[in-house]
TrEMBL record:
<dbReference type="InterPro" id="IPR001387">
    <property type="entry name" value="Cro/C1-type_HTH"/>
</dbReference>
<protein>
    <submittedName>
        <fullName>Transcriptional regulator</fullName>
    </submittedName>
</protein>
<dbReference type="InterPro" id="IPR010982">
    <property type="entry name" value="Lambda_DNA-bd_dom_sf"/>
</dbReference>
<dbReference type="InterPro" id="IPR031856">
    <property type="entry name" value="YdaS_toxin-like"/>
</dbReference>
<dbReference type="Pfam" id="PF15943">
    <property type="entry name" value="YdaS_toxin"/>
</dbReference>
Amino acid sequence: MDIAAYRREVGLSQAAFAALLTDAGSSATQGIVSQWETGVVKVPAERCALIERISNGSIRRTDLRPDIFGPAGNVQEVA
């Protein structure tokens, strides 16, 4: 699942999703979430595990960056 689909499913705005990341220790803004969703900027690899964790696994790192983490199906457990 991508970030936009997750946000729609749980009823979060881009700003609210950014706040979740910030609260978890990785500063983010509505603008950067928008850029990730539109593909203007790729989600940094170091943020993928955190996004996977705050979404309770709904957004997988393999969905966000298959170029780094491989295709879906090769998922390892999030610590």
